[in-house]
Amino acid sequence: MSERADMAEPRPDELPVDGKTADQAESRHDEDDRLRPDFVSAVLDAVEDGDRDLARDLVSPLHPADIADLLELTPSDRRGEVAAALGDLVGAEVLSELNDYVRDDLLDALEPQQVADFAAELDTDDAVAMIEDMEAADQQAVLDALDPEDRAAIESALSYPEESAGRLMQRDLVAVPEHMTVGQVIDYLRDNRDLTTDFWEIFVVDEAHKPIGTCQLSWILTCPRSIAMADVMKREQTLIPVDMDQEEVALRFQKYALISAAVVDASGRLVGMITVDDIVHIIAEEAGEDILRLSGAGEGDINQPILEAVRTRLSWLVVNLGTAVLAASVVGFFQETISKYVVLAVLMPIVSGMGGNAGTQTMAVAVRALATNQLTSSNTLRQIVREFRIASANGTALGILIGIAVGLIYGNPDLGLVIAIAMLINNLVAGLAGILVPVTLDRFNIDPAVSSAVFVTTLTDVMGFFSFLGLATVWGL
Amino acid sequence: MSERADMAEPRPDELPVDGKTADQAESRHDEDDRLRPDFVSAVLDAVEDGDRDLARDLVSPLHPADIADLLELTPSDRRGEVAAALGDLVGAEVLSELNDYVRDDLLDALEPQQVADFAAELDTDDAVAMIEDMEAADQQAVLDALDPEDRAAIESALSYPEESAGRLMQRDLVAVPEHMTVGQVIDYLRDNRDLTTDFWEIFVVDEAHKPIGTCQLSWILTCPRSIAMADVMKREQTLIPVDMDQEEVALRFQKYALISAAVVDASGRLVGMITVDDIVHIIAEEAGEDILRLSGAGEGDINQPILEAVRTRLSWLVVNLGTAVLAASVVGFFQETISKYVVLAVLMPIVSGMGGNAGTQTMAVAVRALATNQLTSSNTLRQIVREFRIASANGTALGILIGIAVGLIYGNPDLGLVIAIAMLINNLVAGLAGILVPVTLDRFNIDPAVSSAVFVTTLTDVMGFFSFLGLATVWGL
Description:
Chain A is mainly alpha-helical. Chain A contains 24 helices and 6 strands. In chain A, strands 1-2-3 form a 3-stranded mixed beta sheet. Chain A has a 3-stranded mixed beta sheet with strand order 4-5-6.
């Protein structure tokens, strides 16, 4: 509804700017801010026709993030050609916005000197992200092509573990001693033109360069010049150890609503700064990847080369094939019962399947709660009890439902009772496994999103078949 | 590894501050920044013993976000008591950090005037988040208890749709005309002490109060006083329509790496500002909720009342029960075949189950790619082809594997061939359904995360049974 309202008139973020009309702007994006397919085709056609000027005219009004999107939407075998046609429109900023796979693909076609030129334009963290996945030899060639200062900064970042704060931080920041006044800080900023201009907070440090406070720029701007930084800054601050994992960094930014944070080395000295705009995509990635891991899709990136995707998914499927064979062997024990009463074969997948569904629900809740630090050892027991109660309620309801239906349809109350009890049992197994498995894996520092599903679905399959066919055998059906 | 290194010495973010020793600080948090269970117990015990002073001493050094965590970790029947004992330590900021369910629970016990006092302390967006889920009558009582200015601001926010930009924005912002110089802006900020002090950018507006540019505070601080705002500001800006859905807002903040953004009404006038710290938790929520929706766990919040959780999950399970019965009825058609060769009943769950696994992989990838705007109509066809190729590879590999194993184990090459072909067919069905279902739902503006799983698993169950048992029947096994 609201989207329709947007479309009736030019979207405010595409009102005439720089002489472009709203209509021209409107035609590039759909209402969800995605590039329109006909716009993408128009660019690709222009490139194919060799009309470089038209292609550049079409693309030049785009934000670098949109140019990155355009390259991602281009079929992989044409990306090099399109990037070449667009020339300097595909700058360092576009590269840093690109999906990792797409970027690596494009960089492979460039000379080390060209990559180095791009890297030199970027903040350290973006330059590092650009070259950290290159082959060692290619990476070294790029580093060699950099000027010594940039090279030193990037090499220092690369010395920290992958996905650590040291790789995310930038070294350009503003740090001042606490005795400086607001006026002196402003003068210092005005006089030092080679300082970064992209910062949101100023760090106040002691003589050993250890952070003792943080000051939002708005506080400086709203204070008289005579006030000392010591009286403006906030002393409580969240410092990020340089070797902290990026997932942990992201959680702290979220929890404490940080805009930027000081990064400190083992001795507590200020060595860099992380800003929230570099964290936002990590927050989204970390929160979004659980679904991919839980389903065994690995990274699940649509730009991942097919062979790599096949390898990741197949290895997971083969593990599942093993557990499916295990579950089937349970059925094998009861062949005699089934051959006497084939309807059991018809009904057994219902019991195992419903257990799988219920287990997946609980597992998803537990995996998310663990990832967001909501489920901790302080409330684990309470949550297990909670899941058991939910499973009892659901199992009872589903058992009654299927029991009555089966009893009536097959005119066999005993069969109804057996499937009802089996359904309840398997729901309880599912509920308990759904929370116990992820919690246990987490205790052993194994990512519950990656490994929980195998255990839980194996348990619900095995117990589904065993409880139903076992009860049926004992009951003498 | 890195965490162990942290623990060997005081964590940098808990170095002595305000006279607290590192040891005391250390004992409150574990290495993942979660409150330690023994710390939580110590607080609960102190409250139980009526030792309010000890409880307050323990809690007072905590950040509001940690006090919120403490209340969440407290069993629900003791939260009111603990909050009462902590008194003013549970302030407005703590309430705004609390999980929605936990907060609503606590607010229910308060008088409207008390809630109004909390609301008055908060930014509009946080106050709105606090009272938007209250019963209409309770909400009105709180509004009546507010002073007219706060009431007007909150009522205006509540007039926008739930989860829209209008509810997220704050009205306190700094907007200046473009002819002002940097010096004049600084003087204006220093002279107007009732302006907000929490802002990161200044908006430049025209006479009609429409935003024409945005200026980072760092640019103002690094410029001479004489420069006009028109020459410092950036004219390209992402404006947020006031009725835009919060998910869309979150995507724009991510895509364009925004720290804050101007919110405009239908006529393009500046009406508010959204800052990234209010968006960060939405980004995490939106990215994380797909896994919960796909598994049918609804909101999947561990603080959700049990009855509500049962209702949500059960309704999904009942739908799945229907589809399971449908799939079982396919098996029903082949009872005669099964009764002749019971091994088919043993093997059939393998074929359907593996299809379900493969379908879930593809579906997870597609749902994420749709949610992140990576999968658009420009590349849908390409992705369908990609998934088909992956499914062919995986289906062939799995078919050969299970075919040979079954052929050998049962000494029946025909049975091996039948299960191999059925496995390939079901993997192709899974791969195609895994992408076609979410893409189709998305086209019809139905959330693919909510509804895809039912369709995909029904298809893989039905086709798994049908292809395997059907082939076995035709083959005359």
